[in-house]
Amino acid sequence: MKILIDEMDDGWDEKLKELGFDAYSVKKLRMDGHKLRTDYSVINYAKENNMILVTRDTESGQACEENDLPYVLLDNASIFNIVLNKLKNY
């Protein structure tokens, strides 16, 4: 399984690689010369390379849904629930 990490979470690719995942970063791919400036180009790249997109961008998540591309959407509600659960430990 190949994973594409959207630019907001650059660095997660390295952490996922350490755990054995085949992960790539939009930001690093762009630095290597790939033209990944728009949501469309990122989604298209993920689809062409059989990748799962990890993003915080709800519009990208919707576009993935419409194009049958697997994705993980880290929306504000999900992040808030993680913060809330951690705060309960204090």
Note down, in words, how this protein is organized.
The chain has 90 residues and is an alpha/beta fold. It has one domain (2-87). The protein has helices at 12-18, 26-31, 39-48, 58-66, 76-87; strands at residues 2-5, 22-25, 51-55, 71-73. A four-stranded parallel β-sheet has the order 2-1-3-4. Helix 4 (58-66) links the parallel strand 3 and strand 4 (71-73). It is globular. The model has no long low-confidence stretch (mean pLDDT 93).
Keywords:
alpha/beta; globular; 5 helices; 4-stranded parallel beta sheet; 90 residues
Mean pLDDT: 93
Query: Low-confidence parts lasting 5 or more residues at pLDDT below 50?
Result: none
Query: What portion of residues belong to β-strands?
Result: 15-25%
What is the rounded distance between the termini? 37 Å
Helix-strand pattern, N to C? EHEHHEHEH
